[in-house]
Amino acid sequence: MIVDTVSKVMKMKNYIDLHMHSVFSDDGEFTPAELVQRCKEAGVKVMSIADHNSAKANVEAKVEAEKVGIQYITGIEIDCTYKGVNLHLLGYGVDETAPVFAEIEENIRAQEVKASLERLPLTRNLGFEIEVSELNAIADINKREIWTGEVFAEVLLAKAEYLDHELLLPYRTGGSRGDNPYVNFYWDFYAQGRPCYSTLVFPDLNEAINMIHVNGGKAVLAHPGKNLHGQFELFDEMVLLGLDGVEVFCSYHSEETAKYFLERAAHYSLFFTCGSDYHGKTKPSVTLAGHGCFLDSDDVMKQLELV
User: Fold this and answer.
1) Which residues pair with 245 in a beta bridge?
2) Three-state DSSP class for 266?
C-alpha cells in the first residue's frame, strides 16, 4: 500500500517527505494541520508525520492532507535499542488507533518527566543557573515537566548573563554548532553517553519491529548514519530481525553515507525512503523535503517496485 501510493506520486515529481514531527512529539513546533499546510506550500506531494512514540497526529493530518490534495501515509517513530545503541524506528502504514501506540506514548512520557528532573541538576553541574519556571516558560503548555535538551538549550542561549559563556559560544550564530543550535546542544550534552544523559528504557529493536508489523505497518530504520556512526556493520545484523526499509536520504546524511545505505538496501532488497526529520525551530536548518535525494523519479519508482 505504502509503495503503491508513493510510486504513483513519484511519476509526477520527486517531492516526498516521510519524516517530520508535530506538537505530539516533545520537540515538535507545529500542529498536524500546520504541517500539512507547510508541506503544501513547499510542494510536497507525499507526506508522513512520524512523531516520537505517538501516532496521534495521523488522525488530523489525514483529514487535512486530503483537503489539499496531498497523499498521506500514517507514521510513527519508535525509540528502541539494539546492543545498547539507541535507535529510531519508523513505522509506515500502521493502524494509528492500535492501543499499543497509546500505551508506549504514556510509558515514554512518564519516563521523560522523571528524566527531566534528573537533567536539571546535571545541567547545573555544567556551571549554569537555571530554574523550573524558566524551563516551563519554554516548554509547550501540554508538555510541562518535560524538559528536553533542546528546551535547556533555548533557555540558556537566551540568558544575557551567558552571552559569552565558553560552552555556549559554538551554538551562537556563526559558531561551529550554530546551524541547529538547540538540537546540537542536545546531541552534545544530553544524548546517550553525554554528561547530562538520563537513561530511558526503550523496547528493543526486535520488539519494535514486531509492534509495527502486527499493526499493519512497514518497519524502516531512521537516519542510520546518525545513530550508527562508527558502527555501520550493525545494520547488516538488524536487517535479519525483519527491517522492511531504511531511510537513505535525510538531513543528516552526506552523499557518501546515502550511497552506502542505498547499496545496502539494494543488497538486502529493502526499500528506501526520503525524510527531512523536520521539527520547526528545534532544527532551523532542516527544511521540508530537504533530505538531499539525488535520484530522479524513475530511479525511486524502480526500487519501490521491489516491495
Assistant:
1) 220, 271
2) helix
Query: For the chain, how far is it from start to end, CA to CA, in angstroms?
Result: 10
CA dihedral 171, 175, 176, 177 (to 10 degrees): 20
Give pTM, 2 decimals: 0.90
Residue 283 has pLDDT above 90, yes or no: yes
Question: Which is it for the CA torsion 146, 151, 156, 160, positive or negative?
Answer: negative
Q: Within 13 Å of residue 40, how many CA atoms lie on the same side as its CB?
A: 14
- Nearest one of 192, 215, 195 to 82, comparing CA atoms: 192
Distance of CA 132 to the CA centre of its chain: 26
Phi/psi at 55 (nearest 5 deg)?
Answer: -110, 10
Type of residue at 106: E
Has residue 13 got a pLDDT over 90? Answer: no
For residue 78, what are the β-bridge partners?
89
- CB within 8 Å of 173: residues ≥ 6 apart: none
What totals of helices (H) and strands (E) does the chain contain, helices first?
12, 8
Q: What is the DSSP letter of 251?
A: T
User: What is the fold, at CATH topology level, of the domain defined by 2-97+204-304?
Assistant: TIM Barrel (3.20.20)
Q: Give the span between the Cα atoms of 208 and 214, in whole angstroms.
A: 10
List the grid coordinates of 148.
528536553
Residue 67: CB atoms within 10 Å: 11
**Sheet strand arrangement including 46-49:** 16-20, 46-49, 71-72
Give CATH 3.20.20.140 domain extents, the chain.
2-97+204-304
Cross-strand pairs, 71: 46
Query: Is 70 exceeded by the pLDDT of residue 297?
Result: no
Pair type for strands 85-92 and 218-221: antiparallel
Which residue, among 246, 248, 244, 250, has the nearest Cα to 290 in the 3D structure? 250
The three cell numbers locating residue 252: 543528516
Separation between Cα atoms, residue 117 and residue 121, nearest integer Å: 8
